[in-house]
Amino acid sequence: MRARIQAAGVVFLASVLAFTARGQEVRFVAATPALENAVRTYQAIWDEHGKDIVAALESRTCLQFPESSVRAIVADATSNSGGPEYPMRLRASYPPEAKQSTLVHELGHRHLWQLEERLDDVDGHMTLYLVLDLVWQDVWGEEFVEIRVRGESGWRSNYDYGEAWSWARSLDAEERARLWGELLSLNGFFYGCNNLTGLEE
């Protein structure tokens, strides 16, 4: 099963800020001049935590981050991961903690595009949720994880984020590792990734 990739539209590029973390560059771009403060908030998150975010994504998934540069449009619109030829989109109005978690959420989707083959009955968000709370924990700790899992579980959408989080959080570390190993093997990567342990109780 392949994850759906949503394409962001062309928007007015009002300002660009960039920061490089371990070779990865995220370029935050305001959709309108009125959103430049939100751009600065996302930029500050990346300045402080970008290296840790990339390191945690790579460590927990046993995969190298595939993109050297990512463009992220900050807009008054729903966040999404974009597509290979399209930027991410990040909601401007989120409070700071939601900006933090959403930045990692959308980068996580992009990171997992390299897993073109997916497990049966495990969709793109369920796949991401096998690792996302662990990445959040590595960067910001367990209290942050609990707040943001509750936040995402309450999102109102055609997709049931709460059900996907309940499924992922019901799995113990061994089952997560088994599923992740199968997923890596299915895509031609090394099976023995044991980095899906360590979520604090």
Give structural notes:
This protein has a domain of 80 residues: Zincin-like (2-Layer Sandwich). Strand 1 and strand 2 form a beta hairpin. The N terminus is likely disordered. Strands 1-2-3-4 form a 4-stranded mixed β-sheet, covered by helices on one side. 46% of the residues lie in helices and 12% in strands. It has 201 residues and is α/β, with parallel strands linked by helices. The chain contains 7 helices and 4 strands, in the order ββαββαααααα.
Features of the shown structure:
201 residues, alpha/beta, Zincin-like, four-stranded mixed sheet, 7 helices, 4 strands, 46% helix
Largest sheet: 4 strands, mixed
Which outline best applies?
globular
Helix content: 40-55%
Strand fraction band? 5-15%
Low-confidence stretches: 1-22
CATH architecture group name of the domain at 16-95: 2-Layer Sandwich
**What structural class do the secondary elements suggest?**
alpha/beta
CATH topology name of the domain at 16-95: Zincin-like
Mean pLDDT: 86
Number of strands: 4
Helices, by number, come to 7
Please give the CATH class of the domain at 16-95. Answer: Alpha Beta
Give the SSE string: EEHEEHHHHHH
Widest β-sheet, arrangement of strands:
1-2-3-4
